[in-house]
Structures are given as C-alpha cells and as structure tokens.
Description:
Strand content of chain A: 15-25%
Low-confidence stretches of chain A: 217-239, 353-359
CATH superfamily of the largest domain in chain A: PurM-like C-terminal domain
CATH architecture of the largest domain in chain A: Alpha-Beta Complex
Number of helices of chain A: 10
Number of strands of chain A: 12
Radius of gyration of chain A: 20 Å
Structural class of chain A: alpha+beta
Oligomer: homodimer
Largest interface: A-B, 72 and 72 residues
CATH class of the largest domain in chain A: Alpha Beta
Distance between the termini of chain A: 45 Å
Shape of chain A: globular
Strand order of the largest sheet of chain A: 7-9-6-10-8-11-12
Amino acid sequence: MTKVKDIGEQGLLERLQRFCPPDVIGDDAAVLVTDPEQSLVVTTDMLVDGVHFSNATTSPEDAGWRAAAANLSDLAAMGATPLGITVALGLPGDLSVNWVESLYQGMTECLQQYHTPIVGGDVVRSPITSLSITAFGQVHPNRIIRRGAAQVGDAIVVTGVHGASHAGLKLLLDPQIGKHLTTTEQAALIKAHQRPQPRLDVLPHLWKILDNSKFKIQNSKLRINNSPSPQSPVPSPQSLTPVAGMDSSDGLADAVLQICRASGVGAVLESSQIPLPTAFDHWLTSEQALNYALYGGEDFELVLCLPPEAAKTLVQQLGQDAAIIGSITSDTKVLLHHQNQKIPDQVLNLSQGFQHFSP
Amino acid sequence: MTKVKDIGEQGLLERLQRFCPPDVIGDDAAVLVTDPEQSLVVTTDMLVDGVHFSNATTSPEDAGWRAAAANLSDLAAMGATPLGITVALGLPGDLSVNWVESLYQGMTECLQQYHTPIVGGDVVRSPITSLSITAFGQVHPNRIIRRGAAQVGDAIVVTGVHGASHAGLKLLLDPQIGKHLTTTEQAALIKAHQRPQPRLDVLPHLWKILDNSKFKIQNSKLRINNSPSPQSPVPSPQSLTPVAGMDSSDGLADAVLQICRASGVGAVLESSQIPLPTAFDHWLTSEQALNYALYGGEDFELVLCLPPEAAKTLVQQLGQDAAIIGSITSDTKVLLHHQNQKIPDQVLNLSQGFQHFSP
C-alpha cells in the first residue's frame, strides 16, 4: 500500500491533478473565465500548527498576517486584484479565544491594506489547530500573469530583495547569530519574516507600462506562435499580456525554475544582480547570502519575465530593491553566472539544491 | 483565560464576525457584488477525521461526496450556480494514497452531475486528516435567496423528505434496528445519508415560476418596505426575488428557526404535512419520525418561503416529495401544529430541542 509519505505532498498533488480540468491548474492560482471582461482567480492554502507555524517563532498575529499575505501574494502573482478571503479553522477546545482573535487581528491588519474583507468561514472542533484560507480575486482575461508565458529574450525582474525572510527566521530561532548586526538590521530582517508584504502594489505600474503601445506591438510579434490551451478561449495575439511570472514564496530559484519549466525555456541569472539585504554584506559569506536568496523562500516578491525595455521601465518605477537579475534563453537549463568571480556557471536544480555551490 | 470550549464554535464564530463586513455574512454563503449582472457567492467548510467523518460509517468516496454535496447545497440555498471548488487537505504521512484518491473520486462523482470542476487545492502534512472545501458560484443579484427575506403570508416549501439521512446513519451504526425494514428501504435510507443530493435542480423551476409576472407584481407590493443593507445597492422593489430560504443541512427545525429569526417573523408548521420516508410508517413512532425529520439534519433539501400561489406551482412541478409544510406568521414563534392529534401546538426551540415532545 503506497502511503502519502512515500510519494510526498508534491507527488500526491500530481496524482490528484487527474481530477481537475487541465487548463485551470499549475499556476499560483486557478483562473475561471466567468465573463469576457473579468476572470475569477482562486487560491487556497492550509496551515497546520507545528508544521507551518509555531508559537515558538510566530505570534498568532504574525501567523494570521503571514497566512493572509501568502494568499494575496498568489493573487498578485496572477495579476489579480483581491475580492475577499474565506477562513476555515480547526481548533482544539483548550485553545484560548484570545489566540484566535489575535490570529484574526493579524489577518485583518494585512488585508486592510488592500481593502480585502474576510467574507466567510467555518470554525470546527479538531485535535490540532489548523487554518485554511481561500482567496479570490479578479483580473481582466488579457492581464493574467501566467508561469508558462516567458519568451526567449525576456528580462527577468525581481521586485525586491531576497533572503531577508529566511535570515529573519534564523535570527528568531537563534538570536546569537545576529550579534554582528545592528538592532535596526535585526529588526528589519525579523519583520521581513513576520510581516511579509504581498506585492499587489506592483500591478498598477505593470499595467501602465504594458498599456504603452510600444510593448504591445513588440509582444504581438513574439506571441504569435504561442499555443494556448485548447479549452481556453484564444485571445488575439495583440491582446496577450507580454508578461510571465509567479511569486517567490518557495524561493527565487524555485520561481525561475518553475517559470522556465512551464514556458519550455531556460534562463541565465547574474548572481551579482540579485538584490540582497544590505545587512548580508558584513554578516554572511557570498555563498551563504546567495543560498538564502535563492533557496530561503517566503520573501513573497514577484518574479516577472517581460520584454527588456518594459523591464527597465518597471525597475525604474518600482525603485528601491527591484532589479533585472537575468534573461530568458532558448536553453532548457537555468544557469547562474558569476560575473565578478572566477568560478564557472552553475546549473540551478531544485532536487540538487545549492549545497553544491563551491568556488 | 476563556477557552474555545467555553464559548463553543458558534460563540466563537459570533465573536469573529467583528472582523467581517456585516453585509456579507450570516447566510449559507457570502455574496460579493462584483458586477451589476453577477454576484459571486462563496462558502467554506472544514471537515476533520473523527469529528465530521469516520472510516467506521463512511468510506472515503462517501466522505468526498458528502463534503462536495454540502458545499453545493449551500450554493443552491443562495440561488447560485456553481463555478468550482477548491480542496485543501491536511494528511498524515501514513495515510494511504488510495484513500485520498477515493476521497477525490467521491467528490468528483458528486460534482460532475453539476459540471463543477475542482479548480485548485493544497496538500499539506498534518497529524490528523482534515479537509477544507471552498465552493463558489454565481447568481444574478436579483435572484439571491436570503434567509432574511421571508414575508408574512409566505408558504413554506420543503423540496423533499426529511429524516432519511439521520435514519441512514442510525442503520449504519446499528444494523439491528433495521430488522423490520426491507432491504430496499434500508438501502434507500443509507444512500440518503451517504450520497445526499444538493438541490441545484430546484433553481430553474423556481426562476421560471418567479419570472411569471403575476408573482412579480404581487411581490412588489409586499417588498416595498424592506430595508436592504445600506452598503448594498438597493434594487427596485419589482426586481427583488420574492423568495427566502436556506438548506436543511442542520435540520428542518433549525432552517425554519433561522429563516424566521433573520426575517423577524414567525411560522406555523403542520406536522402531518412534513414529508417523511415511507419506511418510517411501519418502523418509527410518530414522535420518533418527527424528531428525525426536524432535528436529524443532513437531508440537504431546500426550505423556501414564497407567495402561496408560487409555492403551489413549485410543489406541483417538483413532484415527488416536495410539500408545503406551513406558513410565515407575524408572530415571532415557530409553532408546530398537529392537525390530526389531540395535542396542543408546540413552540419549536433549538436549545430546548424536541425531547419535550409528549402528548
């Protein structure tokens, strides 16, 4: 008898995909065309006490904030504006009501920034605390950001620094390791872990840039050979969004690899261009810093692939820590290039991980 | 420190409502106005192994069917057509993959009847098996069926028999008690428990009847003093749906009481009119039969309040076991009248329950 642990959560999800229509899954969220002008975007997450959050490192307010942020980030990664979330809770009878209210307080604080209501929920008895959030949003069908739409020649943009959330978690687990950091630096890294910001603010900039006819025309040429799923309505090439992307919740390396796999392309990343927290400079070796940035996860930034001119404009408009970190190639590999170091390019690979990084 | 068990799940839900906008909660599902022509309806449920399902009485296929049916029933109770569901699973590593696939098989079998896809999900590690489903559907804003819209004089319609699901559960727990029933009768009651049908089929009949101008005019007179939530757009009186309702998932008594509380009205039910499974006639006392019907729950029929003429037409069209079981009164109590028995009317009350029923 095959058990869940024998094939893992990812293996099980793959087996269960045969119960789902092939054209709505495999992205940060599902897209349902309900209307010619608006598609419904839906994403769901379950979080279990001791697995995804723990009172040791996470207050109930922060657990709530992080859960809400993760779901809003999935919507942002699809280009969607949030409409609301539902919250289902499984709770042991001995849990304090105050804990639950604090969890809701944290969720609400995150959601209110984006005028997103909690529109419903369920509370049930359970031997273990667990939390399931479903977020839904809407997007014009021509503005859906899909993983599988990256084009050879696209620039790869990240909307902010990577590695901060992982560093914050490390500091919470072992404050000792931060003794060479200033209090401000420590607080900033810990905040990056406890209160990540979904990057919904990026979308208006992106649409404004892409509505510029220059990029539209450029894109219509690139996209004409694309083959959308046969079950989806086929938009005219001019109307397709010239942007692919996802969020970096599972790490920057994962995001680039997933986009490349879904798009049937490769990428070259320039290690020196990956934006890192400034505190890393005098704290971590460059190898550690890159490990945190590529594999740490939970930074909840967007990783976007778009035509180079549009990418430059986007990075300028976002300012701060947004950067072009590489480009999409016709290869099938994702290479990490080290401009300033005398080490060869490395092939990024999730199963192999970054442990093999050595000069 | 107040604990969850001190105030119960319902008490906690009430406390958490302050985090939600007041105009979207308190019904079978939340309604979000996304468009003048379509509202989005969302409902969510969490089910926990040992609390809501158990391998003792429920195969994984049946657990999946029931979970899907309960969510589709909530959509039907709002007048909404389903668009899709998401499924989040918490699973122990030792669970068999086959169990999970069977759960999905059962969900899919129920959903396929209504062309409803599973559009996304999450699978996570958890010490206990749990399942969270979020279903979403759409409805024209003028056709939303709300609990709080019952009017004095409305007839109360149930779309089918009550008590069958509870009887089926009893038979599964103790097959001995069914020895006076035929195999067919036993199988029918068990099926009612294991494979309940959400009554989405009722909606087209309902709209056809209510689109008849006779009922529309009648309703515009009744509804003119209604005060919709100040945050919702106010439809013209002619366009309001002359129907209130919810599903009977928590029992028929609960449904009528909830509708009356939300509408600020009362009701008189005629006990002899409540449709019961025919097997009850030679199996249960009339007291037991009424107890099962009123308090058993999980029959997933619709309880609808609408003008008497429209109600008669609906019952005729639905045929089978649909019936008018009473009417809405200007009282605030829900009375159970016993036409054929020499016992006084009883006041239905959830906290008191039906144990006090005695001649």
